[in-house]
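MOLECULE: protein
FOLLOWS: sequence and fold
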Amino acid sequence: MAEFTKFHSFVEALAEGKHNFQTATLKVMLTNTQPSASDSVVADITEIAAGNGYTAGGNSAGTVSSSQTSGTYRLICNDPTAWTASGGSIGPFRWAVLYDDSATNDELVGFWDYGVATTLNSGESFVVDFDPTTGVLSIA
């Protein structure tokens, strides 16, 4: 998977109690406009157009575990449901953005850069593949 980059505001939002990853509704949305680490809420992101198998707001990533061991916190999530193009194409997109849909302002968490813009043609699928061991993110 592409490398995770946290949004700067995520650190403050975490410290101010805006996230509870035990109960949060985390989602992943796609964009073809490079996110800035200084973005803070979903409204700061230019999402790709909905349609042909892509729903506005992206897909849910359910929390499998949210815990710490020896002072290191790990967030483990299920992979969001794959997007499959149907009746036309999805994209292009290059970045996948993780956000907390249950936070008041849909607070951003982080994003992954897949390196090149991708367009899914009808019948093709794309999944954001989270590591089930190291997790989506670690905080030490």
Observations:
- Residues 25 and 101 are 5 Å apart (CA to CA).
